[in-house]
Design goal:
alpha+beta; Glutaredoxin; 3 helices; 4 strands; about 30% helix; about 15% strand; Thioredoxin-like_sf
Length: about 90
């Protein structure tokens, strides 16, 4: 998979605002709903379990979605940081 990838859950209360901002800024991405299928969840967990950026999320018992993975492998968790990608 290349390009930006949005990992999200359709049951996460933070997802709608994150997606709305991506759409407002016309940021193209591939969507991966981690609660839709086991392969999607495994793909996300492979990222989450190998990246230190998720450590704080895990310490606070958070899943770590939504998160936008950029082409350069940087991760954006905060909706306010999406403006820099437009």
């Amino acid at each position: 998979m290349s390009g930006k990838i949005l990992y999200f859950s359709s049951v996460c209360p933070d997802t709608p605002a994150f997606v709305a901002e991506l759409e407002r800024l016309n940021i193209a991405y591939t969507a991966v709903n981690i609660t839709e299928s086991m392969p999607n969840l495994k793909q996300f967990l492979a990222l989450r379990d190998t990246r230190p950026e998720f450590d704080v999320k895990k310490e606070h018992n958070q899943v770590g979605v939504p998160v936008l993975k950029l082409e350069n492998d940087a991760l954006i968790f905060d909706v306010s940081e999406l403006e820099s990608q437009a």
